Amino acid sequence: MAGLKLKKEAWGLAIVISIAIFVAIMSLPEVLMPAAKYLISRMGPLWLLAIFVVGILHGLKPDEHTWPITVSYGMMQRDVRGVIEAVSVFAGALTLVWSLMSALTGQLADFLSSPRLTPYVDIVVGTTMVGVAAYLVLSKGDHAEVQNRADYKLIWIHGLAAAFGGDFFIVLILTLTLMPAIPSALSFLIGLAFGAGSWIAQIGVVLLIYKGILHGMGDWNVLANAGRIALGILGLFMIGLGSSLFFFPSA
Q1: What is the pLDDT at residue 241?
Q2: The overall pTM is greater than 0.85
Q3: What is the residue extent of each domain of the chain?
């Protein structure tokens, strides 16, 4: 009976969290690009600080390429240190890709300077999320007591894939905007500053959610199992969102 109760609580929590993230992502208007353009135009020589602030805004914004992954994996962690490590691995992968690609913008701009990659990224990331969630649930049982943290290698892979989503387009736009005003050797700092700001903000967001849910539930096993299930549910959402962009590009 205890196992059945834990299973029901985990599914209930996972559904609530998934719906909340889904609603937050779909209801928030796109504010990152207007904010980025405004800050860059006003900050002048302090362009690096401006990009860092834009990165913080990115980490705070409900986003289909961050929250579904970071919140789900964060819920699986035993303690605050684990949450910070999980988010840092993911955000570190994002930052690495953004730094490298901002440094190579001249060669890659023709291919990547449009949001046409977004549907594919959503589907690939969503499929990976569903696969990982199925493995975690089926291999360890969604009602058994959880012993281990999520595999950070998987989180790293999620981060590398998610880095090529719509927000990478923003990094490219920022790079193209700033390239005439800065030495090309410093272009990598654009992706690095953006990623660093997002990294810090993501840790804050996920820690707040983690502590709030854990305080409310009082049972870490429920939280961890709900994180596994939410990863799968939100993965399906990502697949659906990516597929819809083929038919409704402006969605």
Answers
A1: 82
A2: no
A3: 2-247
